[in-house]
Amino acid sequence: MTTESTLPPSPGHLSSTAGPAHGLTSLASARGASDRPVLPALRSVPARSVASPLVAVDCTAVLLAAMLLAEPQRHVWFLAQLTISVLALNAYAGLHRPAAISSVLDELPALATRALVAWCAAAAVLAAYAPAQAIALPALGAAYGTHLAVVCLCRGMIHGRRRRAARAHPRSALVVGAHPAARRLATALAQHPEYGIRPVGIVGPRKSGAAPEDGLALLPVLSSPEEVHRAIIQNTVREAVFVGDDVPGQTGLVSLLQYYGCATWRIGDAAGDAGRRPAMNEHLWGYACRRITPVRPRRGRTAKRLLDIAGAGLMLAVAAPVLLVCAAAVRLSDGPGVLFRQERVGQHGRLFTLLKFRTLRPSDETESATRWSVANDSRMSPVGRFLRRSSLDELPQLWNVLRGDMSLVGPRPERPFFVAKFSRIHTGYAARHRMPVGLTGLAQVHGLRGDTSIEDRCRFDNHYIDTWSLWQDICILLRTAASLVRPAGS
């Protein structure tokens, strides 16, 4: 897509109807700001410092309890088996990832049950393989009681310290949801600092003319990814809380916030649908709360890059005669300037220069950067029309793939002007830049090329990223090759 024709210039950034809460940085965008794309800067999710101490507590409790056993019963393999069992059972139950408000009393049944299973299993294995060293029932009970006492004492100290630190240094958070439910939750969190969460903004639709309700938090409303990005940077946001049951319908926004490095939570009835009921301490001021597990990047990105290098190199070698013919045709038909260069937005918002065969000559750089391409532009020569229809004008982008600017498969790159515009209009559009942009993609093999729905393309692109595999890339390449037999334009 090289020229644009239908979309009007981007409007100024929206301003928040609600002013910032006292002491908070204003999150509203300034009117007249640049239309440069505001995209997430890659940031890793901060590690939860509480997990390591709790693992250390489990190991320490096993060692101290084992001191009550006779010397022959304290074999290294016995202690190793017991330690691994305790750690595995507690990790599987989520006991190394405490809830917002953790209490030893709430955790005691789960801790006691899993410790009992681990000790009984280890003692049974020892009795089966070394009957002479079997642990007597009183000694086993004493060791188990010591283990449980150490765990409860140490976890109580850790939880108490964590609550004090959370109250003293609350983490900035965004509340995502519809008014007024989001404001009610934000107000509750602001009034109860023991949860360690300080709301700094509400992400949701902006209600024009809505009067602020008495008793509810007066926070800025963020209605575009650009405003969300600015809020995260200005306030060092680390948490995002989703209100309501429509979290599955907000996958793009969840992915975007996780990509920024925010821990994401959901509250309400949907919090209990993940296979088990929330525990008593899994709540935020009475709202059932459940963490949304982030989608981890799948392995194989090195293999994807190797596929890009091998595929692009091979295709450049095979298509060299075609490239020469296309270049000569453009030169003879449209004059000097065979290649068209244009700034596009790549992975993580990085800009790069995309190469294409020129299919028409725009009047100036502003036109090519801010006008939408159409298949039957009257200024397009027959050669340009054929190149566009057959997608041969995209062949020079194989050089972009070799350079590492692009991948063979990924979301199609767009110009900065339209990335900024679409990011404001379509939730999750900026999240499609989590992976390298590509020559072709899942949206393209489903016919979403040229002047088609941006919302549909965005949905396909994010689905591709969330379900990425090397085999999926190969399938998309094969389907793209098959579609070239029946070209439909770009």
UniProtKB/TrEMBL annotation:
InterPro entries, A to Z: Bact_transf, EPS_sugar_tfrase
Any single Gene Ontology cellular-component annotation: membrane
Keyword Transmembrane: yes
Keyword Transferase: yes
Main location: membrane
Membrane topology: Multi-pass membrane protein
Gene Ontology molecular function: phosphotransferase activity, for other substituted phosphate groups
Domain named Bacterial sugar transferase: residues: 304-485
Location(s), subcellular: Membrane
Bilayer-crossing regions: 76-96, 108-129, 135-158, 306-330
UniProt keywords, alphabetically: Membrane, Transferase, Transmembrane, Transmembrane helix
Stated family: Belongs to the bacterial sugar transferase family.
Protein name per the record: Transferase
Organism annotation: Streptomyces purpureus
Lineage of the species this protein comes from: Bacteria, Bacillati, Actinomycetota, Actinomycetes, Kitasatosporales
